[in-house]
Write a structure and sequence with these properties.
With about 375 residues, the protein is of the alpha/beta class. The protein has 14 helices and eight strands. Helix 5 runs antiparallel to helix 6.
């Protein structure tokens, strides 16, 4: 065994019902006196509660999915004008992503308080969208210095959005299993993340107000993000970033739909990794475990339910092919991407990706309300 692994420096506080106290402690520890709070309008009341008593100089609520560059620039200017010395994000991936965009150029420390299962808070990955193209990168400056996990803050997230967001976290785990920089530590973290998410999400569906399922899902989310940040972005995330940037698709639902198709495509070419994923699900095969979970939680099924046109899927083929990561378990052709996107668009049986057949079986599709804070 020979590998190189780098762990990121980040403080994590995990305690249900203690967000306000933990946030205050982290702000004081970092010596901040001019806090810029970033929270979408829908999270304003929650953010007020979490940040009570802090030296807040600005509350910023312009939060947009996929972080358009013009939104980032306005927020950067506002942070400079108010002379903020710390960014406090309260919300989902779009909110954390905006804080990262500010930190990328301004170098300000971030304290992140997640209200979804996006996982962005535990990675050094940033993303910006300009002219319908999403660009991502890695920079230690955007890694939040502290993360405060409080499962009570996720209880208001509706079950459908909780499912989509949790499956987004699961996609981090699966991509980490064969990411371009993957190592055994990444795989160990991702495997435990899969186990926790597979246990937590059905519990959230069965008891939305209960904390045990929410805590397991948050725990799995953190593990998934740490594994993903180290292993790097695999084929699944490259596809979803292209679709999100080009067509402004809802982030979490896009990941939830695309994931089984990429898993079914890659798994036959990585049998040892496939067995590890299957074991984490407690299933005979990786795809069987994922499909069982998706069935139990009534997962999103088809990209057409979220605004993607059939012609859009065809137009995205080359853009995806251009960013296929090195070291994907199997070679990827334009026809492979075409079949995968068509299957995800219509909600086909993902098992069709394991062979060369272009015939797909339609399944019942599931529509959900688009919510920015679920990203």
């Amino acid at each position: 065994m020979r590998f190189e692994h780098e762990s990121l420096a980040q403080r994590v506080r995990f305690a249900s019902g203690e967000a306000a106290a933990l946030v205050r402690a982290e702000v004081e520890r970092l010596g901040a006196s001019r806090v810029m709070v970033i929270a979408a309008a829908a999270e304003a009341e929650l953010a007020q509660t979490v940040t009570a008593g802090l030296p807040v100089v600005l509350r910023w609520d312009e939060v947009v999915m996929h972080v358009p560059i013009e939104v980032a620039e306005r927020a950067r200017d506002a942070a400079a004008v108010c002379q903020a010395d710390l960014l406090l994000s309260v919300g989902g991936g779009s909110t954390t992503g905006l804080a990262k965009a500010i930190a990328l150029t301004g170098g300000l420390p971030i304290v992140a308080v997640p209200t979804t299962y996006a996982g962005s808070e535990a990675t050094s990955v940033w993303g910006l969208t300009e002219q319908a193209r999403k660009t991502t990168g890695v920079d230690v400056r955007v890694l939040p210095r502290s993360v405060v996990y409080d499962a009570t803050l996720t209880v208001s997230l509706p079950v459908p959005m909780s499912v989509a967001s949790g499956l987004n976290a699961l996609a981090h785990c699966v991509d980490a299993m064969w990411g371009p920089r993957v190592d055994p530590i990444d795989q160990a973290l991702a495997g435990e993340g899969i186990r926790a998410l597979a246990a937590g999400l059905p519990a959230v569906v069965a008891d939305p107000a209960g904390l045990p399922g929410r805590e397991q899902t948050l725990y799995g989310t953190y593990l998934s993000a740490v594994a993903f940040s180290s292993a790097g972005s695999g084929l699944h995330h490259k596809i979803c970033h292209v679709l999100g940037g080009m067509y402004d698709l809802p982030h979490a639902q896009t990941h939830a739909v695309v994931l089984p198709h990429v898993l079914a495509f890659n798994a036959p070419a990585a049998p040892e990794t496939e067995r590890r994923i299957a074991a984490a699900f407690g299933a005979g095969s990786a795809i069987d475990g994922l499909e069982r979970l998706r069935r139990d939680v009534d997962a999103p099924r088809a990209l057409r339910d979220y605004g993607l046109k059939e012609t859009d899927a065809e137009d995205a083929v080359q853009a995806v092919l251009d960013v296929v990561p090195d070291g994907n378990p199997r070679p990827v052709t334009a026809e492979d991407i075409r079949r995968l996107l068509r299957a995800a668009w219509r909600g086909a049986d993902p098992r069709t990706m394991t062979d060369d057949s272009t015939t797909t079986n339609s399944t019942t599709t599931n529509s959900m309300t688009r919510r920015t804070h679920g990203d």
